[in-house]
Protein backbone atom coordinates (compact mmCIF):
# COMPACT_ATOMS: atom_id res chain seq x y z
CA UNK A 1 0.00 0.00 0.00
CA UNK A 2 1.17 3.53 -0.78
CA UNK A 3 1.19 4.73 2.83
CA UNK A 4 3.70 2.06 3.90
CA UNK A 5 6.24 3.27 1.36
CA UNK A 6 6.46 6.74 2.92
CA UNK A 7 8.78 7.87 5.68
CA UNK A 8 7.22 8.57 9.07
CA UNK A 9 7.42 12.35 8.75
CA UNK A 10 6.06 12.40 5.21
CA UNK A 11 3.28 10.05 6.29
CA UNK A 12 2.41 12.35 9.20
CA UNK A 13 2.29 15.36 6.86
CA UNK A 14 0.10 13.54 4.33
CA UNK A 15 -2.37 12.41 6.98
CA UNK A 16 -2.39 15.86 8.58
CA UNK A 17 -3.09 17.41 5.17
CA UNK A 18 -5.98 15.01 4.52
CA UNK A 19 -7.53 15.72 7.92
CA UNK A 20 -6.99 19.47 7.57
CA UNK A 21 -8.61 19.47 4.13
CA UNK A 22 -11.61 17.59 5.52
CA UNK A 23 -11.96 20.07 8.38
CA UNK A 24 -11.63 23.05 6.02
CA UNK A 25 -14.26 21.63 3.68
CA UNK A 26 -16.66 21.07 6.56
CA UNK A 27 -16.14 24.59 7.89
CA UNK A 28 -16.71 26.19 4.47
CA UNK A 29 -19.89 24.21 3.79
CA UNK A 30 -21.13 24.82 7.34
CA UNK A 31 -20.74 28.58 7.07
CA UNK A 32 -22.57 28.64 3.75
CA UNK A 33 -25.44 26.74 5.33
CA UNK A 34 -25.49 28.94 8.42
CA UNK A 35 -28.60 30.76 7.20
CA UNK A 36 -30.52 27.48 7.39
CA UNK A 37 -28.76 26.30 10.54
CA UNK A 38 -31.96 26.07 12.60
CA UNK A 39 -33.34 23.34 10.36
CA UNK A 40 -30.02 21.53 9.93
CA UNK A 41 -28.56 21.56 13.42
CA UNK A 42 -30.51 18.63 14.79
CA UNK A 43 -29.98 16.17 11.89
CA UNK A 44 -26.34 17.23 11.57
CA UNK A 45 -25.86 16.73 15.29
CA UNK A 46 -27.23 13.19 15.08
CA UNK A 47 -25.10 12.43 12.01
CA UNK A 48 -21.86 13.78 13.44
CA UNK A 49 -22.45 11.91 16.71
CA UNK A 50 -22.92 8.64 14.83
CA UNK A 51 -19.87 9.24 12.65
CA UNK A 52 -17.66 10.18 15.62
CA UNK A 53 -18.68 6.97 17.37
CA UNK A 54 -17.97 4.99 14.20
CA UNK A 55 -14.59 6.67 13.77
CA UNK A 56 -13.62 5.93 17.36
CA UNK A 57 -14.54 2.27 16.95
CA UNK A 58 -12.58 1.88 13.70
CA UNK A 59 -9.52 3.69 15.07
CA UNK A 60 -9.52 1.51 18.19
CA UNK A 61 -9.90 -1.63 16.06
CA UNK A 62 -7.03 -0.67 13.75
CA UNK A 63 -4.75 0.29 16.65
CA UNK A 64 -5.53 -3.00 18.39
CA UNK A 65 -4.60 -4.96 15.26
CA UNK A 66 -1.34 -3.02 14.88
CA UNK A 67 -0.35 -3.48 18.55
CA UNK A 68 -1.08 -7.21 18.35
CA UNK A 69 1.12 -7.63 15.29
CA UNK A 70 3.88 -5.56 16.91
CA UNK A 71 3.91 -7.77 20.01
CA UNK A 72 3.90 -10.92 17.88
CA UNK A 73 6.95 -9.67 15.96
CA UNK A 74 8.83 -8.99 19.19
CA UNK A 75 7.98 -12.50 20.38
CA UNK A 76 9.15 -13.98 17.06
CA UNK A 77 12.56 -12.27 17.41
CA UNK A 78 13.04 -13.73 20.90
CA UNK A 79 11.92 -17.17 19.72
CA UNK A 80 14.38 -17.20 16.83
CA UNK A 81 17.23 -15.91 18.99
CA UNK A 82 16.59 -18.70 21.51
CA UNK A 83 16.44 -21.28 18.71
CA UNK A 84 19.74 -20.11 17.24
CA UNK A 85 21.39 -20.12 20.67
CA UNK A 86 20.19 -23.65 21.44
CA UNK A 87 21.31 -24.92 18.04
CA UNK A 88 24.74 -23.36 18.49
CA UNK A 89 25.19 -25.03 21.87
CA UNK A 90 24.13 -28.42 20.55
CA UNK A 91 26.40 -28.06 17.51
CA UNK A 92 29.34 -27.99 19.92
CA UNK A 93 28.59 -31.60 20.87
CA UNK A 94 29.04 -32.86 17.30
CA UNK A 95 32.16 -34.68 16.14
CA UNK A 96 34.74 -33.00 13.95
CA UNK A 97 34.92 -31.85 11.19
CA UNK A 98 31.14 -31.29 11.09
CA UNK A 99 31.33 -29.47 14.41
CA UNK A 100 33.63 -26.66 13.27
CA UNK A 101 31.95 -26.30 9.90
CA UNK A 102 28.50 -26.07 11.50
CA UNK A 103 29.63 -23.53 14.08
CA UNK A 104 31.01 -21.28 11.35
CA UNK A 105 27.81 -21.53 9.34
CA UNK A 106 25.68 -20.82 12.40
CA UNK A 107 27.61 -17.59 13.02
CA UNK A 108 26.89 -16.54 9.44
CA UNK A 109 23.27 -17.58 9.90
CA UNK A 110 22.91 -15.33 12.95
CA UNK A 111 24.31 -12.42 10.95
CA UNK A 112 21.81 -13.07 8.17
CA UNK A 113 18.97 -13.16 10.69
CA UNK A 114 20.02 -9.73 11.94
CA UNK A 115 20.21 -8.52 8.35
CA UNK A 116 16.63 -9.70 7.76
CA UNK A 117 15.54 -7.78 10.86
CA UNK A 118 17.13 -4.58 9.56
CA UNK A 119 15.66 -4.60 6.05
CA UNK A 120 12.22 -3.34 5.06
CA UNK A 121 9.72 -6.23 4.68
CA UNK A 122 9.04 -7.06 1.06
CA UNK A 123 12.04 -5.13 -0.25
CA UNK A 124 14.64 -6.60 -2.60
CA UNK A 125 17.25 -6.30 0.15
CA UNK A 126 15.17 -8.42 2.51
CA UNK A 127 14.48 -11.03 -0.17
CA UNK A 128 18.22 -11.26 -0.83
CA UNK A 129 18.87 -11.74 2.89
CA UNK A 130 16.22 -14.47 3.08
CA UNK A 131 17.71 -16.23 0.03
CA UNK A 132 21.20 -16.12 1.56
CA UNK A 133 19.80 -17.48 4.81
CA UNK A 134 18.11 -20.34 2.99
CA UNK A 135 21.41 -21.25 1.33
CA UNK A 136 22.94 -21.49 4.79
CA UNK A 137 20.02 -23.64 5.90
CA UNK A 138 20.68 -26.13 3.13
CA UNK A 139 24.37 -26.26 4.00
CA UNK A 140 23.63 -26.75 7.69
CA UNK A 141 21.11 -29.48 6.97
CA UNK A 142 23.58 -31.29 4.75
CA UNK A 143 26.20 -31.24 7.52
CA UNK A 144 23.61 -32.46 10.02
CA UNK A 145 22.86 -35.39 7.73
CA UNK A 146 26.56 -36.24 7.63
CA UNK A 147 26.78 -36.16 11.42
CA UNK A 148 23.78 -38.44 11.78
CA UNK A 149 25.06 -40.82 9.12
CA UNK A 150 28.43 -41.08 10.87
CA UNK A 151 26.88 -41.87 14.26
CA UNK A 152 23.23 -42.95 13.82
CA UNK A 153 23.00 -44.25 17.40
CA UNK A 154 24.48 -41.12 18.95
CA UNK A 155 22.04 -38.82 20.74
CA UNK A 156 23.95 -35.59 19.96
CA UNK A 157 23.23 -35.49 16.20
CA UNK A 158 19.58 -36.31 16.82
CA UNK A 159 19.15 -33.46 19.30
CA UNK A 160 21.05 -31.13 16.99
CA UNK A 161 18.79 -31.95 14.03
CA UNK A 162 15.74 -31.31 16.21
CA UNK A 163 16.96 -27.87 17.26
CA UNK A 164 18.09 -27.11 13.69
CA UNK A 165 14.58 -27.76 12.41
CA UNK A 166 13.10 -25.53 15.12
CA UNK A 167 15.55 -22.79 14.17
CA UNK A 168 14.48 -22.93 10.53
CA UNK A 169 10.80 -22.82 11.51
CA UNK A 170 11.42 -19.86 13.83
CA UNK A 171 12.93 -17.80 11.04
CA UNK A 172 10.16 -18.70 8.61
CA UNK A 173 7.59 -17.59 11.17
CA UNK A 174 9.41 -14.33 11.84
CA UNK A 175 9.71 -13.48 8.13
CA UNK A 176 6.01 -14.17 7.65
CA UNK A 177 5.19 -12.00 10.66
CA UNK A 178 7.24 -9.09 9.33
CA UNK A 179 5.06 -8.97 6.22
CA UNK A 180 1.79 -9.50 8.08
CA UNK A 181 0.30 -6.00 8.17
CA UNK A 182 -3.08 -4.60 9.09
CA UNK A 183 -5.35 -5.26 6.06
CA UNK A 184 -5.40 -2.42 3.56
CA UNK A 185 -9.19 -2.30 3.71
CA UNK A 186 -9.03 -1.50 7.42
CA UNK A 187 -6.41 1.21 6.86
CA UNK A 188 -8.46 2.85 4.09
CA UNK A 189 -11.58 2.65 6.21
CA UNK A 190 -9.75 4.37 9.07
CA UNK A 191 -8.47 7.23 6.91
CA UNK A 192 -11.68 7.78 4.94
CA UNK A 193 -13.90 7.34 8.00
CA UNK A 194 -11.83 9.73 10.08
CA UNK A 195 -11.80 12.36 7.32
CA UNK A 196 -15.57 12.09 6.82
CA UNK A 197 -16.30 12.24 10.56
CA UNK A 198 -14.11 15.31 11.01
CA UNK A 199 -15.71 17.02 8.01
CA UNK A 200 -19.22 16.49 9.39
CA UNK A 201 -18.10 17.59 12.87
CA UNK A 202 -16.63 20.79 11.42
CA UNK A 203 -19.79 21.36 9.38
CA UNK A 204 -22.01 20.93 12.44
CA UNK A 205 -19.94 23.29 14.59
CA UNK A 206 -19.73 25.85 11.79
CA UNK A 207 -23.50 26.17 11.77
CA UNK A 208 -23.14 27.63 15.28
CA UNK A 209 -20.44 30.02 14.08
CA UNK A 210 -17.70 28.46 16.22
CA UNK A 211 -15.73 25.27 16.78
CA UNK A 212 -12.48 25.83 14.87
CA UNK A 213 -10.31 25.17 17.93
CA UNK A 214 -12.32 22.10 18.94
CA UNK A 215 -12.31 20.44 15.54
CA UNK A 216 -8.63 21.31 15.03
CA UNK A 217 -7.73 19.54 18.28
CA UNK A 218 -9.81 16.53 17.21
CA UNK A 219 -8.06 16.44 13.84
CA UNK A 220 -4.63 16.57 15.51
CA UNK A 221 -5.54 13.69 17.83
CA UNK A 222 -6.90 11.58 14.99
CA UNK A 223 -3.79 12.23 12.91
CA UNK A 224 -1.58 11.18 15.82
CA UNK A 225 -3.53 7.94 16.31
CA UNK A 226 -3.28 7.12 12.60
CA UNK A 227 0.48 7.79 12.53
CA UNK A 228 1.02 5.55 15.56
CA UNK A 229 -1.09 2.79 13.97
CA UNK A 230 0.95 2.95 10.76
CA UNK A 231 4.24 3.13 12.65
CA UNK A 232 3.45 0.04 14.72
CA UNK A 233 2.89 -1.86 11.50
CA UNK A 234 6.29 -0.94 10.01
CA UNK A 235 8.75 -3.00 12.08
CA UNK A 236 12.00 -1.76 10.52
CA UNK A 237 11.10 1.89 9.88
CA UNK A 238 9.73 4.86 11.73
CA UNK A 239 9.85 5.71 15.41
CA UNK A 240 8.42 2.43 16.74
CA UNK A 241 10.61 -0.46 15.61
CA UNK A 242 10.89 -4.12 16.50
CA UNK A 243 14.33 -4.35 18.15
CA UNK A 244 16.78 -7.03 17.05
CA UNK A 245 18.51 -6.92 20.46
CA UNK A 246 17.98 -10.66 21.22
CA UNK A 247 19.59 -11.62 17.91
CA UNK A 248 22.45 -9.19 18.49
CA UNK A 249 23.06 -10.73 21.92
CA UNK A 250 23.14 -14.27 20.50
CA UNK A 251 25.53 -13.22 17.73
CA UNK A 252 27.81 -11.65 20.35
CA UNK A 253 27.97 -14.89 22.36
CA UNK A 254 28.71 -16.85 19.19
CA UNK A 255 31.72 -14.63 18.53
CA UNK A 256 33.34 -16.05 21.66
CA UNK A 257 35.17 -19.41 21.72
CA UNK A 258 32.88 -22.46 22.10
CA UNK A 259 32.00 -23.39 25.67
CA UNK A 260 33.06 -27.04 25.28
CA UNK A 261 35.76 -28.83 23.32
CA UNK A 262 35.01 -31.24 20.52
CA UNK A 263 33.93 -34.68 21.82
CA UNK A 264 36.60 -37.35 21.87
CA UNK A 265 36.11 -40.94 20.89
CA UNK A 266 33.18 -42.61 19.12
From TrEMBL:
Domain of life (superkingdom): Bacteria
Keywords (A to Z) from UniProt: Membrane, Transmembrane, Transmembrane helix
InterPro entries: DUF4239 (IPR025333)
Transmembrane spans: 44-67, 186-206, 212-232
Pfam families found in the cross-reference section: Bestrophin-like (PF14023)
Protein name as catalogued: DUF4239 domain-containing protein
UniProt organism field: Trujillonella endophytica
Amino acid sequence: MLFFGLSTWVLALVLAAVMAASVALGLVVGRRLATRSVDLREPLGVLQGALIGFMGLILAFGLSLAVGRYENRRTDVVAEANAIGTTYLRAQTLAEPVRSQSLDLLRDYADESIRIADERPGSDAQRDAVDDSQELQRALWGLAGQALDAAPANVAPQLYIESLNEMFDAQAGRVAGLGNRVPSAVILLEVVGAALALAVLALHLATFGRGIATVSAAAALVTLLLVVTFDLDRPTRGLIRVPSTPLDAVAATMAEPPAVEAPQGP
